[in-house]
Write a structure and sequence with these properties.
- 4 copies of one chain form a homotetramer.
- By secondary structure, chain A is of the alpha/beta class.
- The first copy, chain A, is 39% helix and 26% strand.
- Chain A has 13 helices and 15 strands.
- In chain A, the strands form 3 sheets. Chain A has a 7-stranded mixed β-sheet with strand order 12-11-7-10-9-8-15. Chain A has a 6-stranded parallel β-sheet with strand order 3-2-1-4-5-6, sandwiched between helices. Chain A has a two-stranded antiparallel sheet with strand order 13-14.
- The first copy, chain A, is globular and about 60 Å long.
- Chains A and D meet through strand 7, strand 8, strand 9 and strand 10 of A and strand 7, strand 8, strand 9 and strand 10 of D.
- Strand 14 of chain A pairs antiparallel with strand 14 of chain B, so a sheet runs across the interface.
Amino acid sequence: MINVALLGFGRIGQMHAENINKNKDLRLLYVYEKVDRLCKKAKNLYNCKIETNYNKIFIDKNVDIIFISTPTNTHIKFIEEGMKSKKTIFCEKPLDLNIDKIIKTFKKVKKYRPKIQLGFNRRYDPGHFSIKRDLKSNKIGKLEKIIITSRDPSPPSVSYLKVSGGLFRDMMIHDFDLCRFYLEKDEISEVQAFSSSFEPMYKKINDHELAVVTMKSKKGVLCVITNSRHCSFGYDQRVELFGKKGMLISGNKKVNATELYNTNQSSSEKPFLNFFIERYSDAYKLQLKELVSLHKNKIHSRSTYEDGYIALKVANACYKSLKLKKTVKL
Amino acid sequence: MINVALLGFGRIGQMHAENINKNKDLRLLYVYEKVDRLCKKAKNLYNCKIETNYNKIFIDKNVDIIFISTPTNTHIKFIEEGMKSKKTIFCEKPLDLNIDKIIKTFKKVKKYRPKIQLGFNRRYDPGHFSIKRDLKSNKIGKLEKIIITSRDPSPPSVSYLKVSGGLFRDMMIHDFDLCRFYLEKDEISEVQAFSSSFEPMYKKINDHELAVVTMKSKKGVLCVITNSRHCSFGYDQRVELFGKKGMLISGNKKVNATELYNTNQSSSEKPFLNFFIERYSDAYKLQLKELVSLHKNKIHSRSTYEDGYIALKVANACYKSLKLKKTVKL
Amino acid sequence: MINVALLGFGRIGQMHAENINKNKDLRLLYVYEKVDRLCKKAKNLYNCKIETNYNKIFIDKNVDIIFISTPTNTHIKFIEEGMKSKKTIFCEKPLDLNIDKIIKTFKKVKKYRPKIQLGFNRRYDPGHFSIKRDLKSNKIGKLEKIIITSRDPSPPSVSYLKVSGGLFRDMMIHDFDLCRFYLEKDEISEVQAFSSSFEPMYKKINDHELAVVTMKSKKGVLCVITNSRHCSFGYDQRVELFGKKGMLISGNKKVNATELYNTNQSSSEKPFLNFFIERYSDAYKLQLKELVSLHKNKIHSRSTYEDGYIALKVANACYKSLKLKKTVKL
Amino acid sequence: MINVALLGFGRIGQMHAENINKNKDLRLLYVYEKVDRLCKKAKNLYNCKIETNYNKIFIDKNVDIIFISTPTNTHIKFIEEGMKSKKTIFCEKPLDLNIDKIIKTFKKVKKYRPKIQLGFNRRYDPGHFSIKRDLKSNKIGKLEKIIITSRDPSPPSVSYLKVSGGLFRDMMIHDFDLCRFYLEKDEISEVQAFSSSFEPMYKKINDHELAVVTMKSKKGVLCVITNSRHCSFGYDQRVELFGKKGMLISGNKKVNATELYNTNQSSSEKPFLNFFIERYSDAYKLQLKELVSLHKNKIHSRSTYEDGYIALKVANACYKSLKLKKTVKL
């Protein structure tokens, strides 16, 4: 049995706890959390040790995997601790909002080579992954364009938005990483960004409601990402790969395969699965399964520290492009 | 230029006139019609000769093609006249409601071998035909089942229904023929029928609102046909061919490829094309094109007198099955 | 915690064990199984008691629910035992192949009113159930037709087929029940059947490869069921409800929402989920959840002993229709 | 009868001739064309007057409509002639490649207010127009994003490409105009462009194989256009409108509603209609119908000279953005 210590029992932490609990290879040994109410909830649900001093967790030899889903500005600290105590590490995105902190720790990561998996869940989605497999097996020839649509059903709270790092670092970072997943050895070299806000709130907190980013890779692949903080018809998640010989689409998943036909229309109810926990539930399970394999040295990580670093670099380039109204080189 | 005499300028006759007029190989020379108002309409639209004595049409050497869309009980008479005067003949379905009349004339047809095309328009539909081509090129292996759904958007007038010959001879006759189109040399050998009526009117006139017929061919292919005299969501026309190695579907055609997504649903407006004139508009054009080729001796007829005869035999077997509550052999 | 004794650890029993094990309200206390290899497997996976004498299970006061997935001819015996010892009972379909045995026990069932849930899994499928809910909320008006397509990806072994009771009692029994699920108080009153076999094996064992059954309810609803023992493109499961004001479809579920477009075609890989364990995985979970509620007296059973009895009566009527080549009244 | 003089009998001119010939309100009186072979073809097909001196056409009082489908650099000249002789004018896009010429003539257009229809065929497409109607009837609330995909099945000849004005002026000009069609009073205010070429030929002739343009309107609507000069799976034409309350899509039209299911996949043949003549055949007919109404003073033009002017301004801004690697203001 592999023992897991989960740091952070917020919304996403709770989902990870549930998946860890259901995974037959894993045992949820510790939950580290500061909010009392959440500590009780964790205790109730999983009968695990509740720890408010994280040092005790890192020195406990029984802990195999550290699962980091605490606030973003603590990620790097816990990765450092995990490295020191030679744990296998899972860390939620983004690594940090401060690129310098990331770079500093990157040096140690390159030296000590810990087993780290970044929480870029979309890389593990069966649909998004299946079109990557088809791309690699040459079903559409040479890749020429990547078009990603990603829209959240509704925005998080204003208090969350204020500390989130902004749309590009918090939300579109998934899409930057997903482009890189398909680009493989090819890297993003130039970036252009546009944003727009219709709700006045976004301007007040200096964030954006909608954004479109276009990017060009070294080999000339064009990438288009469109994001929206709201989407009345659900969690809209689509990827389109256009190649010399064809096109691959990974589309939205529907709740049911039911249809209604009447005098006015043919229709499907509730078009899409509501949000990431439902839409990417399979992805989260596969991600966890790979974490187990990573821990057992059976595979390389599908989403590395470096992936987390570069995704943030791209996000920062977008802010620069927005500000300077220029194409920004990476 | 090939000269056409159109007999009957009712709803379907008017559609044929329009198609004849648009076809570059054809000239609409005569319209034979007894209703004054319709004669004027024909004259106005096509500036053709209006004739109320059909004999003059059949003896006119300039007439190449006789187009029969008069009431059903006159079809056989005009086919006989057409044969005598060696015209190329198009005749609307059904041939007649009296099988004995059909058999009697069939002997002459076999002897004189006129060029006849029956109005089984679905044989000419690009979608329905494309799955036949795929079936023949072995895309689904050996044919095992044919499933046809055919629903009219709304019933014709009661006065029409009373003289129509009933649902099996008037409406489902198209589907019997379409099954035979896919079965080719294999023939229908056994028939079972069920019907149902929810609107009281149908029982009064001794007709049926809905019907399901199952048939078995000599080689064991199962055929299922479901018909309805009403369909709130349009003209529902679907064919499914199930084979040893796969399935082919020829589905409904939509007006536009547009979709609306909102909070409650994803939907398409006006699901299907409204009725046969719109749904089978391409079929009618291809049918006419083949009539020209038939006239020029370039091809054999795709829908023969014999096809019209056998489809009526199957319809009659359905009535027998309904009455006797038995499987009826053909 | 509710304790479950699972009788029978074959293919379907193993799936039930897995679901019982994952359900937080249930504990798998016993597995009753005669095959040694399977007993070991059960012990290994679930660390439960293995019992080869079923009497010990029924007298154990700790057992709350009896889960019957043994061979068909033992179902009635175990239901009787369960009734006597006042257990909550789940029983796989069909109840038995001998209608007289079923009727005899039905009298006791009516008297002692045990909590019984029959394994008609499709009643619990979210898609099939969602169109029933829409039907009841009048989205398509008065129900007029039910059309069910059900095709297995490939036939079971010949040895299984020989004792299965035949296509109508073993396979189409699900579809008879599903029609009744939508018909509610209305009952099936007449039946017609056709069958066909292309593989010679089916005739040797006196079974059928394909079948089409049409039925009429007391109120005049027409039902069409088509079954096939093989289906090259997967487990084909579709339900269509046609009503006065519209149509509802519960279609096939796809593995992924991915598409490939190339020079020749647009396509989706692996069209459907492979077989009942995958296709109806949600249904099995919901069925189990309802069994818990039934045990706690919170609900009535969605699939009763009577449902199991009538479905077999319909299956028997189909055999009679086939043999006599007649419409058979129920 | 309204008399038409068609200037230019190339590929697109021939299509217009065919549509003019089929329109019952119009007569093709003249064809002006310099290539001998094409003059003979026009004469043969339509038995119209062939004229190589365009002056004779403009002074002929019988000519009502001038249809300009000559090479781009002659458009402005013929518009000027048409204005002088008070003809109703249809002109193919683009107006010209030289913006100064366009501006100069624009002054006269504003003064003399001729009846002009620009050949922006997509504005007349039933699908693209139907989502505009839905947008205006508030089906998706306030418009926030427009996403257009437009890919040609294969590039035109190199000789054509050399004089075409380049991808932005020749091809994407349709999409700039289509954005403006949905934006209505709101105008495009900022532009960013990226392009890429994989075939070496494009760099040689200083053109682009693929391009992505993002634009922002004065009110903050984000527009994304992706173009490709090749598309292995046909003529890919999609429009997506994203609004506060929903999304509208006008998708690709398929040849047939047929599907094949087999062991590996479900598929549709020949995904899309091949090219603009087939895809926009209904649009061309509706455009011509509106030209007749415009001539009769019944409506205002749906696609004006000004629309042609602004679309070219946007195209020019794209070149500037590409060159300067900056966001360009309009």
